[in-house]
Specification:
There is one protein chain. This protein has one domain: Metal-dependent hydrolases (TIM Barrel), CATH 3.20.20.140. The protein has 11 helices and 8 strands. The N and C termini lie far apart (52 Å). The structure holds fe (ii) ion.
């Protein structure tokens, strides 16, 4: 959502259009999570801090009552190249959690688990971004539960639930929700139209009820930013139309 930084809006006007959609969808706080990856080597903590400050000034100027907070979506492949201090400066909303991007490319599940455990072991609290969209997580269903069991949290993308990222991501997203392995749902917005920040309306369209939306889009993300204990998640039943339930053998 920071203009002209990574693959988001090109201009501040495009960013403001995005923020108007977010505000209209009921969002009051939104965390900027530009990619810290080898694709965008110019993105660092000092740049993100300065740009988020400029965005908040532009929001006040435009009378959009929205607060943008600092953050980043850090690629696992960049971690080895970053200092602990730099990682800490890019934590979500100044809280204790770093948003770590689950790799889209292949990779061995064991190696990914080892890297994440090592990062956690060096004192970083980890929120995993969109595991449901990543083939290595999809084909290694033990991976996310193991990481959550080790104390990490996970955040899926709202539009995975509506099928915008394909049927495999949709199926796995619902499976993770039903299994209680999801702690927050994010818009992963990139612009005002194609990938907009209409978080709560998207979740309603996906079929979540009001209390589920309140938990995944508001109260649990707030606890994550504040470093408070993440409240207990409401139950999300697996959709009845799921393929595995149709395939169940007759008794
Ligand atoms: Fe991502």
């Amino acid at each position: 959502m920071i203009p002209d930084l990574d693959d988001g809006p090109a201009t501040i006007e495009d960013s403001l259009a995005l923020f108007r959609v977010a505000f209209g969808a009921g969002t009051s706080t939104i965390i900027a999570t530009p990619h810290v990856s080898w694709d965008y080597p110019a993105v660092d903590a000092a740049t993100v801090q300065a740009r988020v400050g400029a965005i908040n000034a532009a929001l006040r100027e435009a009378s959009i009552e929205l607060e943008v907070e600092i953050g980043a979506e850090i690629a696992l492949s960049r971690i080895g190249d970053m200092s602990d201090a730099e990682i800490a400066l890019l934590r979500l909303g100044g809280g204790p959690y770093s948003l770590i991007e689950c790799p889209h490319a292949g990779g061995a599940a064991a190696a990914i688990e080892e890297m994440l455990r090592r990062l956690a072991g060096s004192g970083h609290s980890i929120l995993l971004a969109h595991p449901e969209r990543c083939p290595v997580f999809q084909s290694n269903p033990h991976l996310l539960p193991a990481l959550v069991g080790a104390g990490m949290l996970s955040c899926i993308t709202a539009r995975s639930l509506t099928g915008d990222f394909g049927s495999r991501a949709r199926e796995y997203a619902w499976e993770l929700l039903a299994a209680g392995h999801v702690h927050a749902i994010a818009s992963d917005a990139h612009d005002a139209v194609g990938r907009p920040p209409d978080l709560a309306p998207t979740l309603a369209r996906a079929g979540l009820n009001d209390s589920q939306i309140e938990y995944f889009a508001f109260s649990s993300p707030r606890a994550i930013i504040d470093g408070a204990p993440v409240p207990r998640a409401p139950r999300v039943p697996a959709p009845r139309t799921r393929r595995w339930s149709l395939r169940r053998r007759p008794r």
